[in-house]
Specification:
216 residues, 5 strands, 8 helices, two-stranded antiparallel ribbon
């Protein structure tokens, strides 16, 4: 299975997003408070698109073996169980008639330590961190809702350059969908799947999982 073309397109998007962060940071150095030792984004909940999941897992497999790999996957197991419990509770609230907006708002407040956050408070895969981590410190929007890091200096009510994450995710979905078609997977909707990082680290993206015919 050849993911190189999709990975190159993903890395191009990562570079473009990084340029946006750098530009906003240079224009608003007081408001962007990201610095070494800050791990606020490392406790936020978010999911990865298909191509990003494959990319990050490939880098994880490439860089981690032995004890270090075991410790990370153990942490990923713990987080994954906690997420499953959180989703189960959210489903119960939905069945009880609570509005989706209220459930989403409550879930968004949940905090879980990323399994890739090291003991010294630094990311163990910083060079390959997800896009969501790369833009956390600047104003973003998704689904018409704005977001800023709670530790930043951006004032509510003021207009700032804002990264439209809907456009970013549309690009990710496009690359993911085209990759699934290139793989000729029987799981034709896999390109629209979202996965938490903890599950990505625990998943073996082999031919069987990807729905790809094994040629003998």
């Amino acid at each position: 299975m050849d993911f190189s073309e999709a990975f190159t397109r993903y890395e191009t998007l990562v570079d473009q997003v990084g340029q946006v962060f750098t530009k906003v940071n240079s224009e608003f150095p007081t408001e962007v408070t990201c610095k070494a030792g800050c791990d606020d984004c490392c406790h936020a909940l978010f999911d990865l698109t298909f191509v990003e999941a494959l990319y990050i897992k490939s880098k994880f497999d490439e860089h981690f073996t032995g004890k270090a790999r075991y410790e990370i996957t153990e942490r990923a197991n713990t987080v994954d169980r906690a997420l499953a419990k959180l989703k189960k509770e959210a489903y119960k609230r939905h069945e009880a008639g609570e509005t989706d907006a209220a459930i989403i708002e409550e879930v968004s407040k949940a905090r879980m330590r990323c399994p890739l956050l090291g003991e010294e408070g630094t990311c163990l895969m910083y060079d390959y961190r997800p896009i969501a981590c790369r833009v956390y410190g600047i104003p973003t929007s998704a689904g018409g809702q704005g977001h800023t890091c709670g530790l930043s200096g951006f004032d509510q009510g003021k207009a700032y350059p804002t990264l439209n994450m809907d456009l970013v995710y549309n690009r990710l979905y496009k690359v993911s969908g085209e990759l699934v078609r290139k793989l000729d997977s029987r799981f034709t909707k896999m390109g629209s799947v979202l996965m938490p990082l903890s599950m990505v680290l625990l998943t073996d993206f082999n031919e069987e999982y990807l729905g790809v015919e094994v040629k003998v």
